[in-house]
User: Fold these one by one.
Assistant:
Number 1:
Amino acid sequence: MNDPNVGISDTRGSPGRALPEQPSLRVQTVLFNHDARDVTRFVHSICAAGTVARRRGALGRMVLALGDSSPAPLLDRAMENEHRRVITASGFDSYEYLSFGENLGSAGGHNVFLGRQDMDLTLVINPDAYASPELIVELVSGIRDRDVGIVEARQAPMEHPKEFDRTTGDTAWASGACFLVRREVLCEIDGFDSHTFFLYCDDVDFSWRARLAGFRVVYHPPAVVYHDKRLDRDGQMIPAASEVYFSAEASLMMAWKYSRPDLADQWSRALLATTHATHQRAVFEFRRRMDEHTLPTPLDPEGTVADFVGDTYGPHRFKYDD
Amino acid sequence: MTTEPRQTQFGAGFDQMGEHPLTVLVRPDTSGAVGLHDTLLSLAAQITQEFDVAILAAGWSDDHVRQLEGIVAGFDRSFAGRVRVVTDRDGSMANALVSIGRARSVSHRWATSPYVTVVTSPDVAFAHWTSSISSTIERRPGVLIHSVVASQPFEVARHGEHLTYTSVGRPRVPWPTQFDLVAFISNGPGTEPCSAFAIPVDTLSTLPEKIEGPSSLPDDERLWRIVSTIALRGEVVDVSEVLQLRRHSQEGSGHDYALSPSPISGSAAVSSYLRELDGRGLLGPGSSLHTLLVDGERGEEAECGRATATSTTASQGSTKHWGIRSLAGFMAWCRRTFRP
C-alpha cells in the first residue's frame, strides 16, 4: 500500500519524504515510428525487470504506460492484447497504450503521464532501451535517500561520459534515456519543459530545475540499461537523424534559459559558421522565438546549478567526439 | 565435473537450441559471474535473437554456477532459454572450438549451430552484432567472417554483488576495419581479438592438430593459430561495422589485448606457428613462410623470396616456379593450393 503521508502539497520546497516500503511505480516510454518488434523486445525486458522487483518485494502497484507519438498507432489490438498478457503475467498491475494522434516529442509525450502525479515513482525510459533484470530494483534502492529526487541508470554499451561523484553518485543531470524520479519532484517542477525542448536537453533542464528545487540527482551504476547506440569505424558515436538539428536548437535554448545569453550568442555564431544548413535552421528558429518573445524566462542567474563546461552541461570524464 | 555439459533449463526457447545459425561462446574473465552482467545484457538486447549462448564456466564451484544461473534466469525467458552453462570444459575458448570441431557429427556437438563466435566478459556487443553476422552467413555461407572491434578504457568498481564498469576515455578502433591476412599472421597473437571473427564449424573439423598448437599454449595464441589457419585455407568476408566493444583497464590488466603487437612474445609465437606450416610442405627447401611474411617487404613490388621461389606442392609432387609479385598474390596461391 502507498504511504498516505506522501502528500503533494506539503512537499513543496522541501526534499522528498521517506518512501513507503513498497512504493508504487509507473514505467513510461514514448514511441515514435518504432518497429513493433523492437517495442515488444523492450516490453519483455521491462517485464523481466518487473518480475525481479515483484519477487524481491521492492514495489507496490506497478503500471506500464506506452505513449505513441506516431502519426498512426504502432500497435494493433492483437499486439496490445499480447503485451497486456505478458505484462500482467510478469506482475504488473496494469498496462496502458495511448496513441496521442500527433507528435508531441519526447518531453510532451512523457508529460501526458507525468502530469497525473499518481505514483510514488516514475521510470522514464527510451523505447530503444533494454532493461537489465535488476534495473528497477537497483534504481529504487538508489532513490531511498529522501533528498535524492532523480536516479539515473548506467547505459551500456556506450556509457554517458558525464562526471559523477564516485562515492555519493551525485551528478549534474540525469539522461532521459533511463531515470527514476520521485513524485515530489514532479509536483515541484511540473514535468518536462516541452514548450522549449522538443527532443534534446529536456532531461538536462528537468534535472537542473529539480536541483534548483533542492533535490539531488544521482548516478547509480549498478542499475544498467542497454541503450542501442552504435559506433562508426572511426570510433565516433553515430548520431540519430534528429540529433543534429534538435541538439543544436536545444543548446541555444539551454544557454538562454539558464541566463547565459552570451553563450547563446557565441554558439549561434559558431553554428552559423559551420555553414551546415541544419545548424543554421536551428539558429533561425531560436532567433524567431526571440523576436516573438516566446523564449523561456531565464532561471538560475547565479549559476547555482547551471554549469556550462565548454559545450557540455557539467563536467565530463571525456568526450565521444574528441 | 560432468562429462556432458551442464544443461540448465531456463524456460522457453531451450527446445529451440541448435536451430539457429550462430552459437556465441562466452568466456568469463577472472571476475567470474559478477563480471558477466553487462555481457549477457548486451546479448539479450540484440535486435535479432537467432543465436544460442554457451557460457564456459569450467572449474567453477557449484555456488558460482548457481550464482551464474541466477543471473541468467533473471532475463526474459525467450533469451534465458537459449543460454547454457558449460562446466565440463577447461574454460579455454580454443579447446571449446576444437571440441566442437572434433565432434564426429552434429548430434555429438554441444554447440550445434553452423557458426560459432566468441565474446569475453566484460566486453559487450552492439545491438546489431548477431544480426549482421547472421545476414552475412546467409549471404556467404561457409566463409570466415571478420568484423570490427572497438576498444574503450574502463575503471572497475564493486557495488554489492555487481561489478560496474565506468568508461574513462572515448572508444577507439585500434584494430583493422578490413581483415589483412598477412598482418594478422605476421603480427602474432594479441594483434586483434578473436571476437572479431565468426567461424564456420565445418572448418574447425579439418584443422590439423599441430596447427592448433598444444593445449599448453595460452588460449589467445591458440585462437590466433586457429583463425590464421582457417583464414589461410579459405575466404574471409569483412563485415565492416563496429560490432563489439572491448573493455580494457587503463592499468593494463591481464584481460587486455595488446593495442599494438608485442614484438617479443609475438615474434616467438609467429615463428613457431610458421615452422608448423613450413613442416607441412607449404614451400620448397630453402624457403620459409617466415621469410615471406615477417622479413619480407610488403607491397606490389616486394622482393619476398627474392623475386622467385620454388614451391613443391604435396598433392602434386611436382615442382613449379612462380614469381612473387606481392604477398597478396602469394596468399591467393596458398588458398588455391591448400584448400582442404
Number 2:
Amino acid sequence: MADLVSDDLCMTFTNPQTGAAVEALKDINFTLKKGELLSVLGPSGCGKTTLLNMIAGFINPTSGNVALGGNVIEGPGVERGMVFQQGALFEWLPVSKNVDFGLRMKKTDKAESEALVEKWLDIVGLQGFGDTPTYQLSGGMQQRVALARCLVNDPDVILMDEPLGALDALTREKMQSLVLELWKETGKTIMIITHSVEEALLLGERLFVMAPRPGRIHKEYNLPFAERGLKESLRDIKQDAHFSEVREEILTMIWNMEEEIMGRA
Amino acid sequence: MLNWLSDHRASIAAVIILLLVIGFVYSIYVGRKQTKLRSKDEVFGDPERTRGGWYWSLCGISALMLVWFYFSWGIGRAYFPDAANEMCQIAKLEEAVSPIKAALPIGSRYYKSTTLVARNANQLAVIEAQLPTAAFTSDEQAQLTKIIGSTRRLLAVSSDPANQSQASRDQLTSLSSDIEALSAKLRQGPGDRTPSAEALAQPRWGTTHIEIPLLPETAKGILFDEVAVSAKEVAKTFNKIRNNPPANEAIIAETRAEIDAIKAANKSGSFDEDTAATRNAYVKSVERIFKRLDDGHIFPAASLDGVNAAIADLDDAKGEAKGGLGIVDALFFPGDGVVKSRTQCTEQSSGRWLPKPTDVVATFFRLANPDIESGGGFKGTTLLWWKWLPIGDVFAFFTPDWIADILPGEYARHSADGTVTPNFKDGVLAFAQGDINLGSVPMLDGHIWDSLFRVLVALGLGILLGVPLGIYMGVSRFFKSFFDPLIELYRPVPPLAWAPLILTIFGIQDDGKIFLLFMVAFAIMVISARTGASGTQLTKIRASHSLGASDGQILRNVILPNALPEILTGIRIAVGVCWGTLVAAEMLAGTTGVGFIENVARTVSDYELIWVTILIMGLLGLAFDLMMRWVIGKLIPWRGKG
C-alpha cells in the first residue's frame, strides 16, 4: 500500500523581518492511491508548488503531515522522484551520466546501471544520445533526459513541477503522450503541477483545482481523458464536447478566483 | 653562428626593417580590400565583425616594431652604420667648446658676466639690509657699509669697457681669431683624410658594451676630431683669461685691509657667545662676496661679442661640414643625438633607454646560453636550464629534523677505538638532513624556473586550501560568517604592502616569497570558489537530493563541478596577480628570479637587460593566460550554455 496521504497539511510562511504570516496552505487532505495520475491546477499563488515541495520533502509543514505508504515524509528521498520545469540537468555530464546519477550515488553495479540507462533512454526516445552533452539538446529532449533520470531510480511517486511549461506547443503534445505512456507502462503514482487547463485535463485521472488565500483544494474532478489518451489521439480528445465543457467550467472558476484576488488587492 | 649573427646585427636589422615596411603596406592594402568586401554583409555592432582580421594584426605588429626600430635608432643604425661614429666626432667638438659656450649667450642665454653682476648686486643689497646693528658699534657699522660700498664699486669698475685690462683685450682678440681658424678648417672640407688602422679595427657600433666606436672612421669624422682637439686647447686658453682692471687694485687692497681689521677686532674683543657668533657670521658673508669679485671673472659686456660671433660662426661651419649627416641626424636619430662624455660616446634620449630590437634579442641569447663558463646566464645562474637534483634533498625538505630527535634511544657515541658506528637514530637524522645518497633526478633550473616554481607552488597551495574553504563558505552559514571577515580584512591590502613583513618573518628566500604569493592566490581562490558554489541553481541541488545523493556526494558531484568555471577564472586571475607580485617581491629581495635580474639591471642602468626581463615577463604571462584559456575551453565546454 504505497498510497500518498495528506493529513491536515498546513504551511504558514512568516516574514522574519515584519512577522507577517501568509497561509500558503491550509488543511489539505487527500489520498492518492498507488498508480493514480493527479494533476493540480490553480491561479498563481495558490500554493501548488509549495504542496509539491512538501511532498518532495524540501520544506517541512507547519502542522499536519504527508505520508507515503505509511511513512511520514521528513526530507527528500529516492522513493519520490522530481522533474523540474527547466530539467535541472547537470550540464557538465553527458546524457548517460545524467541518467545514471542516482545509480552512481547508490554505487550500483556498473553493468547493471548501464543496462538500465540503455533501457530508459530507449523508452523516452533518446537511444544513441548517451554521449551527447546535455547543453546540445533541445528543451524537449532535455525534459526526456530529466524523466529518464527520475525513472531509472524506480521511485514510487513521480512529482512534476510544470514539467512541460517551457516547451513549444508541438513538443508539448508529444511529451504529454510520453507522460501518459510512461504512466501506463510503469504504473507509477504521478502528480503533475501545471497552469495549463488543457494539460491538466489531459494528464489528470484526478484533478485538483486549488484556490488561494489560504491555499486549499477548491474542487476535485475525476476525469476519463487520461485513460482515453492512451488509446486515442490527444487532439481528438480536445475536440470532445465533454472536454470543452469541463475546460470552460474550470477556466471560469480560475478566472473568478483571479478577479477576486485583484478585487481584494 | 651566434657570433656571426651578433656581428652582422645591423645588416640583419636592415632586412627585417624592409620586411616590416612591406608587411605594413601589404596589410593595409589587404585590410582595406577586405573592409570594402565585407561592409556589404555586416552591419555595425554585429559581433561577427570582429572575427578574423589577421592582416590588421600584421599591421599592428609591424607598426609597433617599426616604431620600436625607429625610436631605438635601429633604423639609423641599420641604414647609416657610420653615422654614429661621425656624430661622436661632432660631439667631441661640442664637448670641447662647451666651456666657452657656457660663458656666452649662445650656450646659456646670458653672458656669464651678466649673471655674476646681477647675482652679486642682489646679494650685496640683501647683506646691506641685514646688517646686525646690535652686534657692531656705530663705527664698525660705518666701516662695514663702506666695505660693502667698495665691493659694489668693484662690479662697476669691472663692467666698464674703459677700465678693461689691455692683456684681456689682446687675449680675447687672439682667441676669436683662433676660433675663426677652426671654422675655416671645417669649411675646407674633409679632403682625403684616411682613418688609422686602429680606428678601423674598432668593434662596430653596438656590438660590445662600448656603444659607439670612439676613433674617427671616416674622412669627415677625422676632420671633426682634429678640430675638436684644437678647440680643446682654445677652450683651455679661454678659461685662463681674466679681466683685472688696474683701477680695481687700489680698491681691493684697501678693502682687504678693512676686512682684516674687523676680523681682528672680532678675535680680540670680548663678546658674549651670541654676539661673537653673529659678528663672525656677518663678516664672513661680506668677505665671501668680496672674494668672488677680486679674481677678474667679470668682463664688460661688449668685450665678449667677438668671441660670441666667432663661436656662432663655428656652429655654422659645423652645420655646413655636417652636410647630409645633419638630415640623417634629424630624421633617424630622434632625441638628443650622440653625446661625448669623458671617455665614451653614448646614445641619448630614446636611443639610450630604448634598446634596439636586435640588441635585445642578442642580450636574450647571451642570457639564455646555459654555459655559465663562457659568459652565459646571469650572476652564475642560467636563465632556464636543468640540473641534477639529489632525491635525498627532496625528502629532507619534507622531513623535519625533530623526527629523529623524538625517536627513542640516543645518538651514537664514539667508541674507545676512535670510531663511530651510526645507529638507526643517526640514520633517520641523516635522512632528514638529506645526507643519504638516493640518486638524482633531472630538474629544471635557472632564473625563469625559480620564478615559475614560486608562482606554481604558491598557486598550488592556494588552490588546495582555498577551493575547499571557498566551497564550504558558499554552502555553510558558519564557514561564510566565520571566515568572511578574516579574508576580507587581509585581501584588500596590496600584496606588496605585506612584503616587508612577510619577508622578515619567513626570510628572503623561497619561503617568504611563496607565502606572500600564497596569500594572494588563497584569497582569490576562496572568493571565486565561493561565488561558484553559492551560484548553484537550487533546482539542481533539489534534484540531486531527490536522486538520493548524500551531502558529501552533492558537494563533490554537483556543487564542485558547478563552481568549476568560476574556479578556473579565479586561477587565471590568480596567476596574473601572483606573477606581478612575485616580480616586485624579487626586486625587493633575493638572489635569483626574473625580478632579481631586472633589479640588478636597474642599479647599473642596463636598459637592454631591463627590456629583456620585461619581455620575458610579458611572454610568460601571455603563455600562462593562453594555457589557461585552452584549459578552460577543454574543461568547461558548457560554459555559458547551461
